[in-house]
Amino acid sequence: MRRNLGRVWQPLLAVISALFGLYMVMKIYVAGQPSLALGCMAVLGIGIYVYTSGRAYAYRYLFPGMLAAAVFVLLPLIYTFAIGFTNYSSKNLLSYERARQYFLEETYQVEGDSYAFSLHDDGNAYRIRLERPDGKVFATAPLALKKPEPLTVEAKELAKTDAALSATELQTPQLVPLLPALKKVTVTLPDTQQATLSGLREFAPVRLLYKANADGSLTNQQDGTVIRADQQTGFFTKANGEALQPGFKVGVGFDNYKRIFTEPTFREPFIRIFIWTVAFAGLTVVFTFAVGVVLAVLLNWEALRFRAFYRVMLFLPYAVPGFISILVFKGLFSENSGEINAMLKALFGISPHWFSDPWLARSMLLIVNTWLGYPYMMVLCMGLIKAIPSDLYEASAIAGAGPLTNFFKITLPLIAKPITPLLISAFAFNFNNFVLIALLTGGRPDFIDTTVPAGETDLLVSYTYRIAFEDSGQQFGLAAAISTVIFIMVAILSIVNLRLTKVNQQEAR
Protein backbone atom coordinates (compact mmCIF):
# COMPACT_ATOMS: atom_id res chain seq x y z
CA MET A 1 0.00 0.00 0.00
CA ARG A 2 2.77 2.44 0.93
CA ARG A 3 4.67 1.62 -2.26
CA ASN A 4 1.60 2.38 -4.33
CA LEU A 5 1.13 5.71 -2.50
CA GLY A 6 4.78 6.57 -3.09
CA ARG A 7 4.47 5.83 -6.78
CA VAL A 8 1.50 8.20 -6.95
CA TRP A 9 2.54 11.18 -4.85
CA GLN A 10 6.13 11.48 -6.10
CA PRO A 11 5.17 12.06 -9.76
CA LEU A 12 2.29 14.25 -8.61
CA LEU A 13 4.65 16.39 -6.53
CA ALA A 14 7.04 16.64 -9.49
CA VAL A 15 4.22 17.78 -11.80
CA ILE A 16 2.99 20.37 -9.29
CA SER A 17 6.54 21.71 -8.78
CA ALA A 18 7.09 21.87 -12.54
CA LEU A 19 3.82 23.73 -13.13
CA PHE A 20 4.58 26.20 -10.32
CA GLY A 21 8.09 26.73 -11.72
CA LEU A 22 6.74 27.33 -15.21
CA TYR A 23 4.24 29.83 -13.83
CA MET A 24 7.04 31.77 -12.08
CA VAL A 25 9.16 31.70 -15.24
CA MET A 26 6.23 33.11 -17.19
CA LYS A 27 5.75 35.89 -14.62
CA ILE A 28 9.44 36.80 -14.84
CA TYR A 29 9.27 36.88 -18.65
CA VAL A 30 6.12 39.04 -18.62
CA ALA A 31 7.88 41.42 -16.22
CA GLY A 32 10.40 42.14 -18.99
CA GLN A 33 13.32 39.94 -17.89
CA PRO A 34 13.78 37.40 -20.71
CA SER A 35 17.39 36.55 -19.78
CA LEU A 36 16.48 35.87 -16.17
CA ALA A 37 13.48 33.83 -17.29
CA LEU A 38 15.72 31.75 -19.56
CA GLY A 39 18.13 31.10 -16.68
CA CYS A 40 15.31 30.10 -14.34
CA MET A 41 13.95 27.82 -17.06
CA ALA A 42 17.32 26.10 -17.34
CA VAL A 43 17.55 25.65 -13.54
CA LEU A 44 14.01 24.28 -13.47
CA GLY A 45 14.80 21.80 -16.23
CA ILE A 46 17.98 20.60 -14.51
CA GLY A 47 16.13 20.31 -11.20
CA ILE A 48 13.34 18.21 -12.72
CA TYR A 49 15.90 15.93 -14.39
CA VAL A 50 17.94 15.49 -11.18
CA TYR A 51 14.94 14.60 -9.03
CA THR A 52 13.18 12.36 -11.55
CA SER A 53 16.01 10.52 -13.28
CA GLY A 54 17.62 7.48 -11.70
CA ARG A 55 20.95 8.29 -13.38
CA ALA A 56 21.21 11.60 -11.48
CA TYR A 57 20.29 10.12 -8.10
CA ALA A 58 23.69 10.94 -6.56
CA TYR A 59 23.24 14.64 -7.39
CA ARG A 60 19.96 15.01 -5.51
CA TYR A 61 21.84 15.92 -2.34
CA LEU A 62 24.41 18.11 -4.11
CA PHE A 63 21.97 20.06 -6.29
CA PRO A 64 20.65 22.44 -3.55
CA GLY A 65 24.16 23.34 -2.44
CA MET A 66 25.40 23.78 -6.00
CA LEU A 67 22.37 25.93 -6.81
CA ALA A 68 22.93 28.09 -3.70
CA ALA A 69 26.63 28.51 -4.58
CA ALA A 70 25.69 29.54 -8.14
CA VAL A 71 23.01 32.02 -7.02
CA PHE A 72 24.75 33.59 -4.01
CA VAL A 73 28.43 33.35 -5.04
CA LEU A 74 28.95 32.82 -8.76
CA LEU A 75 26.12 35.02 -10.06
CA PRO A 76 27.09 38.12 -7.97
CA LEU A 77 30.71 37.70 -9.08
CA ILE A 78 29.75 37.54 -12.74
CA TYR A 79 27.31 40.46 -12.39
CA THR A 80 29.88 42.63 -10.59
CA PHE A 81 32.54 41.74 -13.17
CA ALA A 82 30.16 42.64 -16.01
CA ILE A 83 29.17 45.99 -14.46
CA GLY A 84 32.86 46.93 -14.28
CA PHE A 85 32.89 47.18 -18.08
CA THR A 86 29.95 49.64 -18.24
CA ASN A 87 29.26 53.25 -17.32
CA TYR A 88 26.54 52.17 -14.87
CA SER A 89 25.91 55.00 -12.37
CA SER A 90 23.12 57.03 -10.84
CA LYS A 91 23.09 59.09 -14.05
CA ASN A 92 23.17 56.05 -16.33
CA LEU A 93 20.67 53.63 -14.82
CA LEU A 94 18.35 52.91 -17.73
CA SER A 95 18.75 50.91 -20.90
CA TYR A 96 18.92 52.80 -24.19
CA GLU A 97 15.36 51.80 -25.11
CA ARG A 98 13.98 52.89 -21.74
CA ALA A 99 15.83 56.22 -21.81
CA ARG A 100 14.55 56.93 -25.33
CA GLN A 101 11.01 56.06 -24.28
CA TYR A 102 11.37 58.41 -21.31
CA PHE A 103 12.05 61.35 -23.63
CA LEU A 104 9.23 60.34 -25.98
CA GLU A 105 6.77 60.28 -23.06
CA GLU A 106 7.83 63.68 -21.71
CA THR A 107 5.20 66.40 -22.07
CA TYR A 108 4.89 70.18 -21.73
CA GLN A 109 1.92 72.48 -21.20
CA VAL A 110 0.61 74.30 -24.24
CA GLU A 111 -1.57 77.33 -24.62
CA GLY A 112 -5.26 76.59 -24.57
CA ASP A 113 -8.30 76.39 -22.40
CA SER A 114 -7.82 74.54 -19.12
CA TYR A 115 -10.30 71.99 -17.74
CA ALA A 116 -12.18 72.27 -14.47
CA PHE A 117 -11.32 69.14 -12.50
CA SER A 118 -13.11 67.15 -9.83
CA LEU A 119 -12.50 63.67 -8.40
CA HIS A 120 -15.36 61.29 -7.66
CA ASP A 121 -15.51 58.24 -5.43
CA ASP A 122 -16.50 55.09 -7.31
CA GLY A 123 -16.48 52.52 -4.52
CA ASN A 124 -12.91 51.23 -4.16
CA ALA A 125 -11.61 53.46 -6.97
CA TYR A 126 -11.89 57.03 -8.27
CA ARG A 127 -13.00 58.68 -11.52
CA ILE A 128 -11.60 61.93 -12.89
CA ARG A 129 -14.16 64.43 -14.22
CA LEU A 130 -13.04 67.26 -16.56
CA GLU A 131 -15.20 70.11 -17.84
CA ARG A 132 -14.24 72.39 -20.70
CA PRO A 133 -15.27 76.07 -20.80
CA ASP A 134 -17.73 75.24 -23.60
CA GLY A 135 -19.63 72.95 -21.22
CA LYS A 136 -18.49 69.55 -22.46
CA VAL A 137 -17.85 67.01 -19.68
CA PHE A 138 -15.42 64.07 -19.77
CA ALA A 139 -14.78 61.27 -17.29
CA THR A 140 -12.28 58.45 -16.99
CA ALA A 141 -12.79 54.82 -16.05
CA PRO A 142 -12.31 53.94 -12.34
CA LEU A 143 -8.68 54.41 -11.15
CA ALA A 144 -7.05 52.93 -8.03
CA LEU A 145 -4.64 55.86 -7.32
CA LYS A 146 -2.92 53.80 -4.60
CA LYS A 147 0.63 54.97 -5.33
CA PRO A 148 2.31 57.65 -7.48
CA GLU A 149 3.23 56.04 -10.80
CA PRO A 150 3.00 57.26 -14.43
CA LEU A 151 -0.42 56.45 -15.83
CA THR A 152 -2.15 57.40 -19.10
CA VAL A 153 -5.93 56.96 -19.24
CA GLU A 154 -8.65 57.80 -21.73
CA ALA A 155 -11.67 59.95 -20.93
CA LYS A 156 -15.08 59.70 -22.58
CA GLU A 157 -17.61 62.48 -23.06
CA LEU A 158 -20.58 62.37 -20.66
CA ALA A 159 -23.72 64.30 -20.03
CA LYS A 160 -23.07 67.31 -17.82
CA THR A 161 -25.71 66.23 -15.31
CA ASP A 162 -24.43 62.67 -14.85
CA ALA A 163 -25.79 61.73 -11.42
CA ALA A 164 -23.20 59.03 -10.76
CA LEU A 165 -20.44 61.64 -10.82
CA SER A 166 -22.07 64.71 -9.33
CA ALA A 167 -23.28 62.90 -6.20
CA THR A 168 -19.86 61.60 -5.02
CA GLU A 169 -17.44 64.45 -5.54
CA LEU A 170 -14.47 64.51 -3.12
CA GLN A 171 -13.94 67.66 -1.10
CA THR A 172 -10.56 69.37 -0.73
CA PRO A 173 -9.49 67.59 2.55
CA GLN A 174 -10.15 64.23 0.89
CA LEU A 175 -8.47 65.27 -2.37
CA VAL A 176 -5.13 66.51 -0.98
CA PRO A 177 -3.73 63.06 0.05
CA LEU A 178 -4.35 61.82 -3.53
CA LEU A 179 -2.50 64.68 -5.26
CA PRO A 180 0.90 62.84 -5.56
CA ALA A 181 -0.79 60.06 -7.53
CA LEU A 182 -2.93 62.48 -9.55
CA LYS A 183 0.17 64.42 -10.69
CA LYS A 184 1.37 61.27 -12.43
CA VAL A 185 -1.88 60.81 -14.39
CA THR A 186 -2.19 61.92 -18.02
CA VAL A 187 -5.75 62.05 -19.39
CA THR A 188 -6.28 61.57 -23.15
CA LEU A 189 -9.46 63.21 -24.45
CA PRO A 190 -11.51 61.99 -27.47
CA ASP A 191 -9.83 64.56 -29.77
CA THR A 192 -6.39 63.06 -28.80
CA GLN A 193 -5.64 66.15 -26.70
CA GLN A 194 -3.85 65.27 -23.44
CA ALA A 195 -4.09 67.03 -20.09
CA THR A 196 -2.34 66.80 -16.72
CA LEU A 197 -2.96 68.25 -13.26
CA SER A 198 -1.90 71.90 -13.06
CA GLY A 199 -3.74 73.02 -9.93
CA LEU A 200 -5.90 71.76 -7.10
CA ARG A 201 -9.01 72.00 -9.27
CA GLU A 202 -7.58 72.30 -12.77
CA PHE A 203 -6.13 70.16 -15.58
CA ALA A 204 -4.13 71.88 -18.33
CA PRO A 205 -3.60 70.68 -21.94
CA VAL A 206 -0.18 69.17 -22.66
CA ARG A 207 1.71 67.97 -25.70
CA LEU A 208 4.49 65.43 -26.20
CA LEU A 209 7.82 67.26 -25.94
CA TYR A 210 9.85 65.08 -28.32
CA LYS A 211 9.08 63.56 -31.72
CA ALA A 212 11.01 60.58 -33.08
CA ASN A 213 12.84 61.03 -36.39
CA ALA A 214 13.67 58.40 -38.98
CA ASP A 215 17.41 58.52 -38.23
CA GLY A 216 16.86 57.75 -34.52
CA SER A 217 17.22 61.34 -33.31
CA LEU A 218 14.53 63.21 -31.36
CA THR A 219 13.18 66.67 -32.14
CA ASN A 220 12.07 68.99 -29.34
CA GLN A 221 8.66 70.26 -30.48
CA GLN A 222 8.83 73.22 -28.13
CA ASP A 223 12.05 74.85 -29.36
CA GLY A 224 12.98 72.74 -32.40
CA THR A 225 16.31 71.44 -31.10
CA VAL A 226 17.44 67.94 -32.07
CA ILE A 227 19.04 65.49 -29.63
CA ARG A 228 20.96 62.34 -30.55
CA ALA A 229 22.08 59.31 -28.56
CA ASP A 230 25.83 59.28 -27.88
CA GLN A 231 26.81 55.62 -27.54
CA GLN A 232 30.22 56.61 -26.16
CA THR A 233 29.01 58.60 -23.15
CA GLY A 234 25.55 57.06 -22.66
CA PHE A 235 23.58 60.32 -22.94
CA PHE A 236 21.26 62.02 -25.39
CA THR A 237 23.12 65.21 -26.35
CA LYS A 238 22.26 68.46 -28.09
CA ALA A 239 24.23 69.89 -31.01
CA ASN A 240 26.32 71.99 -28.60
CA GLY A 241 27.37 68.86 -26.65
CA GLU A 242 25.06 69.38 -23.68
CA ALA A 243 24.11 66.01 -22.17
CA LEU A 244 20.52 65.40 -21.09
CA GLN A 245 19.41 63.12 -18.30
CA PRO A 246 18.51 60.37 -17.79
CA GLY A 247 21.44 58.60 -19.41
CA PHE A 248 21.65 54.97 -20.44
CA LYS A 249 24.09 52.11 -19.91
CA VAL A 250 26.78 51.48 -22.50
CA GLY A 251 29.89 49.34 -22.58
CA VAL A 252 33.12 51.21 -21.88
CA GLY A 253 35.61 48.35 -22.10
CA PHE A 254 38.55 48.69 -19.71
CA ASP A 255 38.02 52.44 -19.15
CA ASN A 256 37.01 51.98 -15.50
CA TYR A 257 40.17 49.96 -14.82
CA LYS A 258 42.27 52.58 -16.62
CA ARG A 259 40.70 55.31 -14.49
CA ILE A 260 41.72 53.51 -11.29
CA PHE A 261 45.42 53.53 -12.22
CA THR A 262 45.80 56.48 -14.59
CA GLU A 263 43.30 59.20 -13.67
CA PRO A 264 44.81 61.31 -10.83
CA THR A 265 41.40 61.82 -9.23
CA PHE A 266 41.18 58.10 -8.49
CA ARG A 267 44.80 56.92 -8.73
CA GLU A 268 46.19 59.01 -5.87
CA PRO A 269 43.60 58.05 -3.24
CA PHE A 270 43.61 54.45 -4.51
CA ILE A 271 47.36 54.09 -3.99
CA ARG A 272 47.28 55.68 -0.53
CA ILE A 273 44.31 53.59 0.52
CA PHE A 274 45.90 50.43 -0.88
CA ILE A 275 49.08 51.04 1.17
CA TRP A 276 47.04 51.65 4.32
CA THR A 277 44.90 48.56 3.62
CA VAL A 278 47.97 46.34 3.40
CA ALA A 279 49.49 47.98 6.50
CA PHE A 280 46.25 47.68 8.45
CA ALA A 281 45.76 44.00 7.60
CA GLY A 282 49.44 43.18 8.24
CA LEU A 283 49.72 45.07 11.55
CA THR A 284 46.44 43.60 12.76
CA VAL A 285 47.76 40.07 12.16
CA VAL A 286 51.06 40.91 13.89
CA PHE A 287 49.43 42.50 16.93
CA THR A 288 46.69 39.91 17.38
CA PHE A 289 49.16 37.05 16.98
CA ALA A 290 51.66 38.65 19.38
CA VAL A 291 49.03 39.21 22.07
CA GLY A 292 47.40 35.83 21.46
CA VAL A 293 50.59 33.76 21.60
CA VAL A 294 51.87 35.50 24.73
CA LEU A 295 48.57 34.94 26.52
CA ALA A 296 48.48 31.34 25.29
CA VAL A 297 51.94 30.69 26.74
CA LEU A 298 50.96 32.24 30.07
CA LEU A 299 47.71 30.26 30.24
CA ASN A 300 49.62 27.04 29.55
CA TRP A 301 51.88 27.70 32.55
CA GLU A 302 50.90 25.01 34.99
CA ALA A 303 51.99 27.02 38.04
CA LEU A 304 49.47 29.78 37.22
CA ARG A 305 46.50 29.70 39.57
CA PHE A 306 42.91 30.30 38.37
CA ARG A 307 43.85 29.49 34.77
CA ALA A 308 40.29 28.45 33.90
CA PHE A 309 38.95 31.80 35.12
CA TYR A 310 41.54 33.74 33.10
CA ARG A 311 40.74 31.72 29.97
CA VAL A 312 37.04 32.54 30.23
CA MET A 313 37.66 36.23 30.86
CA LEU A 314 40.18 36.57 28.05
CA PHE A 315 37.88 34.77 25.62
CA LEU A 316 34.91 37.07 26.33
CA PRO A 317 35.80 39.70 23.65
CA TYR A 318 35.36 36.95 21.05
CA ALA A 319 32.00 35.88 22.49
CA VAL A 320 30.50 39.38 22.26
CA PRO A 321 29.19 40.25 18.74
CA GLY A 322 31.75 42.34 16.91
CA PHE A 323 29.44 45.18 15.89
CA ILE A 324 28.40 45.69 19.53
CA SER A 325 32.03 45.89 20.68
CA ILE A 326 32.84 48.35 17.89
CA LEU A 327 29.98 50.67 18.86
CA VAL A 328 31.02 50.45 22.52
CA PHE A 329 34.57 51.44 21.62
CA LYS A 330 33.22 54.29 19.50
CA GLY A 331 31.65 55.68 22.65
CA LEU A 332 34.76 55.02 24.75
CA PHE A 333 36.99 56.90 22.28
CA SER A 334 34.58 59.83 21.95
CA GLU A 335 36.63 63.02 22.03
CA ASN A 336 34.15 64.95 24.18
CA SER A 337 32.45 62.42 26.44
CA GLY A 338 34.47 59.22 26.11
CA GLU A 339 35.89 57.49 29.18
CA ILE A 340 39.31 57.00 27.56
CA ASN A 341 39.83 60.74 27.03
CA ALA A 342 38.46 61.44 30.51
CA MET A 343 41.10 59.12 32.03
CA LEU A 344 43.93 60.53 29.90
CA LYS A 345 42.97 64.07 30.79
CA ALA A 346 42.82 63.27 34.48
CA LEU A 347 46.17 61.44 34.48
CA PHE A 348 48.24 63.32 31.89
CA GLY A 349 46.23 66.42 31.02
CA ILE A 350 45.78 65.42 27.35
CA SER A 351 42.66 64.87 25.27
CA PRO A 352 43.59 63.21 21.93
CA HIS A 353 41.49 63.82 18.84
CA TRP A 354 40.92 60.19 17.95
CA PHE A 355 38.51 60.79 15.08
CA SER A 356 39.98 63.92 13.47
CA ASP A 357 43.72 63.18 13.57
CA PRO A 358 44.67 60.67 10.81
CA TRP A 359 47.37 58.81 12.75
CA LEU A 360 45.33 58.64 15.94
CA ALA A 361 42.32 57.38 13.98
CA ARG A 362 44.45 54.63 12.45
CA SER A 363 45.91 53.76 15.84
CA MET A 364 42.40 53.55 17.28
CA LEU A 365 41.39 51.12 14.51
CA LEU A 366 44.38 48.89 15.25
CA ILE A 367 43.67 48.94 19.00
CA VAL A 368 40.04 47.99 18.54
CA ASN A 369 40.80 45.34 15.92
CA THR A 370 43.49 43.82 18.12
CA TRP A 371 40.98 43.59 20.95
CA LEU A 372 38.48 41.87 18.65
CA GLY A 373 41.01 39.45 17.13
CA TYR A 374 43.40 38.34 19.87
CA PRO A 375 41.04 35.72 21.47
CA TYR A 376 40.93 33.80 18.19
CA MET A 377 44.73 33.73 17.99
CA MET A 378 44.98 32.85 21.66
CA VAL A 379 42.74 29.78 21.28
CA LEU A 380 44.65 28.62 18.18
CA CYS A 381 48.02 29.00 19.88
CA MET A 382 46.82 27.24 23.03
CA GLY A 383 45.87 24.20 20.98
CA LEU A 384 49.16 24.19 19.07
CA ILE A 385 51.21 24.58 22.26
CA LYS A 386 49.39 21.64 23.83
CA ALA A 387 50.59 19.51 20.89
CA ILE A 388 54.29 20.28 21.60
CA PRO A 389 55.95 17.33 23.44
CA SER A 390 56.74 18.19 27.07
CA ASP A 391 60.07 16.36 26.73
CA LEU A 392 61.46 19.31 24.80
CA TYR A 393 60.79 21.70 27.66
CA GLU A 394 62.21 19.25 30.20
CA ALA A 395 65.41 18.90 28.21
CA SER A 396 65.59 22.69 27.89
CA ALA A 397 65.20 23.06 31.66
CA ILE A 398 68.03 20.57 32.26
CA ALA A 399 70.20 22.62 29.93
CA GLY A 400 69.44 25.71 32.04
CA ALA A 401 67.36 27.58 29.47
CA GLY A 402 64.92 30.24 30.65
CA PRO A 403 61.33 31.08 29.57
CA LEU A 404 62.41 33.42 26.76
CA THR A 405 64.75 30.81 25.31
CA ASN A 406 61.98 28.21 25.43
CA PHE A 407 59.62 30.60 23.69
CA PHE A 408 61.93 31.63 20.84
CA LYS A 409 63.73 28.29 20.39
CA ILE A 410 60.90 25.78 20.96
CA THR A 411 57.40 27.23 21.13
CA LEU A 412 57.50 29.80 18.31
CA PRO A 413 59.32 27.66 15.71
CA LEU A 414 57.04 24.67 16.29
CA ILE A 415 53.77 26.62 15.97
CA ALA A 416 54.94 28.89 13.13
CA LYS A 417 54.31 26.48 10.24
CA PRO A 418 50.90 25.18 11.33
CA ILE A 419 49.59 28.65 12.05
CA THR A 420 50.94 30.37 8.90
CA PRO A 421 47.90 29.52 6.69
CA LEU A 422 45.60 30.82 9.43
CA LEU A 423 47.59 34.05 9.63
CA ILE A 424 47.21 34.48 5.87
CA SER A 425 43.46 33.87 6.20
CA ALA A 426 43.31 36.51 8.94
CA PHE A 427 45.21 38.91 6.65
CA ALA A 428 42.70 38.29 3.85
CA PHE A 429 39.77 38.82 6.22
CA ASN A 430 41.12 42.12 7.55
CA PHE A 431 41.95 43.21 4.01
CA ASN A 432 38.16 43.47 3.53
CA ASN A 433 37.13 44.38 7.09
CA PHE A 434 34.31 46.71 6.05
CA VAL A 435 32.28 46.45 9.27
CA LEU A 436 35.01 47.89 11.50
CA ILE A 437 35.61 50.90 9.23
CA ALA A 438 31.92 51.59 8.60
CA LEU A 439 30.91 51.48 12.27
CA LEU A 440 33.93 53.11 13.89
CA THR A 441 35.25 55.87 11.61
CA GLY A 442 33.29 55.69 8.35
CA GLY A 443 36.65 56.09 6.56
CA ARG A 444 37.17 59.56 8.00
CA PRO A 445 38.94 61.95 8.39
CA ASP A 446 38.61 62.58 4.66
CA PHE A 447 41.47 63.49 2.37
CA ILE A 448 41.51 67.25 1.81
CA ASP A 449 43.13 67.07 -1.63
CA THR A 450 40.66 64.78 -3.43
CA THR A 451 37.28 65.33 -5.03
CA VAL A 452 36.05 61.75 -4.57
CA PRO A 453 34.84 60.52 -1.17
CA ALA A 454 37.95 58.94 0.37
CA GLY A 455 39.48 59.12 3.84
CA GLU A 456 42.60 58.40 5.83
CA THR A 457 41.13 55.29 7.45
CA ASP A 458 39.34 53.90 4.38
CA LEU A 459 40.16 50.40 3.26
CA LEU A 460 39.75 49.49 -0.39
CA VAL A 461 36.39 47.88 0.35
CA SER A 462 35.02 50.95 2.17
CA TYR A 463 36.49 53.21 -0.53
CA THR A 464 34.57 51.17 -3.10
CA TYR A 465 31.38 51.49 -1.06
CA ARG A 466 31.74 55.26 -0.79
CA ILE A 467 32.30 55.66 -4.54
CA ALA A 468 29.23 53.52 -5.23
CA PHE A 469 26.83 55.05 -2.70
CA GLU A 470 28.22 58.33 -1.32
CA ASP A 471 29.71 60.00 -4.39
CA SER A 472 27.47 62.50 -6.16
CA GLY A 473 27.54 60.40 -9.33
CA GLN A 474 27.27 57.03 -7.58
CA GLN A 475 29.64 55.38 -10.05
CA PHE A 476 28.60 51.75 -9.77
CA GLY A 477 30.69 50.69 -12.79
CA LEU A 478 33.88 52.13 -11.32
CA ALA A 479 33.08 50.61 -7.92
CA ALA A 480 32.55 47.23 -9.59
CA ALA A 481 35.96 47.53 -11.26
CA ILE A 482 37.62 48.25 -7.91
CA SER A 483 35.73 45.31 -6.39
CA THR A 484 37.07 43.07 -9.13
CA VAL A 485 40.63 44.21 -8.38
CA ILE A 486 40.08 43.50 -4.68
CA PHE A 487 38.67 40.07 -5.53
CA ILE A 488 41.77 39.24 -7.57
CA MET A 489 44.02 40.29 -4.66
CA VAL A 490 42.08 38.17 -2.17
CA ALA A 491 42.02 35.26 -4.62
CA ILE A 492 45.82 35.41 -4.87
CA LEU A 493 46.04 35.32 -1.07
CA SER A 494 43.73 32.33 -1.00
CA ILE A 495 45.88 30.48 -3.54
CA VAL A 496 48.98 31.22 -1.46
CA ASN A 497 47.13 29.98 1.60
CA LEU A 498 46.19 26.71 -0.12
CA ARG A 499 49.75 26.19 -1.32
CA LEU A 500 51.15 26.71 2.18
CA THR A 501 48.56 24.37 3.65
CA LYS A 502 49.52 21.71 1.11
CA VAL A 503 53.23 22.14 1.88
CA ASN A 504 52.57 21.81 5.62
CA GLN A 505 50.57 18.63 5.06
CA GLN A 506 53.35 17.12 2.94
CA GLU A 507 55.97 18.00 5.57
CA ALA A 508 53.78 16.53 8.31
CA ARG A 509 53.70 13.23 6.41
Structure in words:
It is a multi-pass membrane protein. This is Maltose/maltodextrin transport system permease protein. Keywords: Cell inner membrane, Cell membrane, Membrane, Sugar transport, Transmembrane, Transmembrane helix, Transport. It is a single chain. With 509 residues, this protein is α+β, with helices and mostly antiparallel strands. The protein folds into 3 domains: 2-61; 107-208, Periplasmic binding protein-like II, CATH 2.40.430.10; 259-508, MetI-like fold (Orthogonal Bundle). The protein is 56% helix and 12% strand. It has 18 helices and 13 strands. It has helices spanning 2-30, 34-52, 63-83, 96-105, 163-166, 172-175, 179-182, 255-262, 264-299, 307-319, 322-332, 339-348, 358-386, 390-398, 403-431, 434-440, 460-469, 476-508; strands at residues 107-109, 115-121, 126-131, 137-140, 151-158, 185-188, 194-199, 202-208, 210-212, 218-220, 226-230, 235-237, 243-244. It has a 7-stranded mixed beta barrel. A hairpin with a 5-residue loop joins strand 12 (235-237) and strand 13 (243-244). Helix 9 (264-299) packs parallel to helix 13, helix 10 crosses helix 13 (358-386) and helix 11 (322-332) runs parallel beside helix 16. It is elongated and about 115 Å long. The mean pLDDT is 87.
Throw out a few tags for this protein:
13 strands; Periplasmic binding protein-like II; alpha+beta; MetI-like fold; 18 helices; 509 residues; transmembrane helix; 3 domains; 5-stranded antiparallel beta sheet; single chain
